[in-house]
Design brief:
There is one protein chain. The longest helix is centred in the N-terminal third of the chain and has 16 residues. This protein has one domain. The chain is globular and about 40 Å long. The chain has 3 helices and 4 strands; from the N terminus they run H-E-H-H-E-E-E.
Length: 119
């Protein structure tokens, strides 16, 4: 994958993550779904909102947690629980992976939020 593709993937992932609480503000053509696991859904709504805001504002990407430079994974601690978030790339039919995650018209981004013990 070229540096330009990686940069574009990172930009698109950041668009999705930074608009997690208002996905209707995504740029034209960018498609995304936000999924929460049962463990996240079981948290009080106030905690869920804090988790969403923390993911939205996450910017601590390093070589260790982002080796490909795509900003597609992160973890956080909330009230003593480790939480993961991950962005995966699917084809528009949602049946298989995207052939080109740098192209928003060929990709649906799925942001999954889970308790670490659900992984």
């Amino acid at each position: 994958m070229t540096d330009e593709n990686t940069k574009r993937i990172r930009e698109l992932n950041d668009h999705v993550r930074k608009r997690i609480t208002s996905p209707w503000l995504l740029p034209s053509g960018v498609r995304a779904k936000i999924l929460k696991t049962q463990g996240i859904d079981a948290l009080p709504i106030e905690d869920q909102l804090v988790v969403l805001a923390t993911i939205r504002d996450f910017n601590d990407f390093t070589e260790d947690n982002d080796p490909h430079g795509e900003h597609d994974f992160g973890s956080l601690d909330h009230n003593g629980q480790k939480i993961f978030w991950k962005i995966d790339y699917y084809a528009p039919d949602m049946m298989h992976g995207s052939e080109n995650p740098a192209d928003p018209f060929q990709t649906v981004r799925v942001l999954t939020i889970m308790l670490a013990n659900e992984y």
